[in-house]
Amino acid sequence: xxxxxxxxxxxxxxxxxxxxxxxxxxxxxxxxxxxxxxxxxxxxxxxxxxxxxxxxxxxxxxxxxxxxxxxxxxxxxxxxxxxxxxxxxxxxxxxxxxxxxxxxxxxxxxxxxxxxxx
Length: 118
Description:
By secondary structure, this protein is of the alpha+beta class. Helix content is 23%, strand content 28%. The protein is built from 2 helices and 6 strands, in the order βαββββαβ.
């Protein structure tokens, strides 16, 4: 999984939006061409998030992300790569890495865990 941090590309109507959209779409097309693209989406801002915890049977819902952090998780790509090195290479090709950072993290395989596709 490629986790996209600290990247705030231009929004629709802002200068540079069309060019940024073209570059991101070209990147997604390249991932599809290579046969590794599974899913990818931007995320809404943290102010739209809710964090849910359950302790001693009580559910608590709080506004925003769980921890105060300077890191902003802005989106993700889920890839099906042959190797970790391939995922790192593809992360380096992502245009969003030029304005933020891309964390590359393997998805854990847990025996017996039901798998769900997006």
